[in-house]
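Dear colleagues,

For the upcoming journal club I promised to circulate an example of a predicted protein-ligand complex. I picked one with fe (ii) ion because it came up in last month's discussion. The inputs are reproduced below in full, followed by the predicted structure.
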Amino acid sequence: MTVRLAQISDLHFGRDVPAVARALLADLREAAPAMVAVCGDLTQRATAAEFAAARAFLDELPAPALVVPGNHDLPGWRVWSRFGRPWRLWRLHIGTDPGEAVTHTADGLVAVGVTTARRWGPHHDWSRGRINSPQLAAILAAFAAAPRDDLRVLVAHHPFLLTPPVLGRGLVGRSGLALRRLGGQADLLLGGHTHLAYSGVVNGLVVAQSGTACSDRHKGEPNSYNLIDADGDHLTVSTRRWNGDRFAAHQRSEYLRAGHEWRAV
Ligand SMILES: [Fe+2]
Ligand SMILES: [Fe+2]
C-alpha cells in the first residue's frame, strides 16, 4: 500500500505571508496526505498572538497533524519565561506536552515526534538542538509496537543531515548516537530549521528537510514543502515550491530499500 505524508516546517507565524499560507492549505487539500508532519518553528517570537495564528492554521489542515516545536517556539530573551515556564503557550495553544514524545499511527504508518529545541545549550548558539537517550528509547518503543511493515517516521526540528550552504548551523546534538540507534529501526527522519529543502541517506535512513513553508524568512530559496510517498521498499520525496502564484512540483528524489537499508536511486 502507498502511504502519503506531507512535511511542512518553519511556518514562523509573525513573519508569515498570508497568500502563501492560503495557497499551502489549498495545495495540501489537493495532495490529500494521510498525515501532515509539522517540523517546528511555528512562530517567530513565541508570542500568544503568533501561537493563536499557528493554531488557526493547524485547524485548517486537511489531515491529522503531528506537530513538534522548534527553537523559535521557546521565549527568546524573556528569560523568566524561557527558564521558568518555557512551554506554557505551546501547551495552551498546541495542546501537547513537549516533554513527551507524540505518536501518530495510520494504516501502514507509525510516526513519532520529539522536541529537539532546548532552553539552553553548552555553546554560544542556543538555537541549536539535541536529542537524548530517553527520547530515543520512546521512539524505539513506539516503532517496536507497530506492525513490521509500517513506514517508521521520526519528526523533529533540528537536522540529521546538512547541505553545503548550512554546514555551519550544526546537526542536532547527539545525532551520531541517534543514527546508530535508529539504524535498521527507522525509515525516514524529517526535520526543518535550515529553511532549505533537500534529502539524502545517512546510515541507511532517509533524511528529508523542508524549507520554510509560509514565512518570508528565506535562506536563499523560495517557500517549499515536501510530499513523501512510500510504497513498500520504494520512497519518493517530492518538493513543491512556491512560484509566486502557487505551489508547484520542483524536484523529486527516489529511494529504494534493500534489507533494512535505504539508498538513493
Ligand atoms: Fe526556522
Ligand atoms: Fe529553527
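Two points we might discuss: The radius of gyration is 17 Å. The mean pLDDT is 95.

See you all on Thursday,
B. R.
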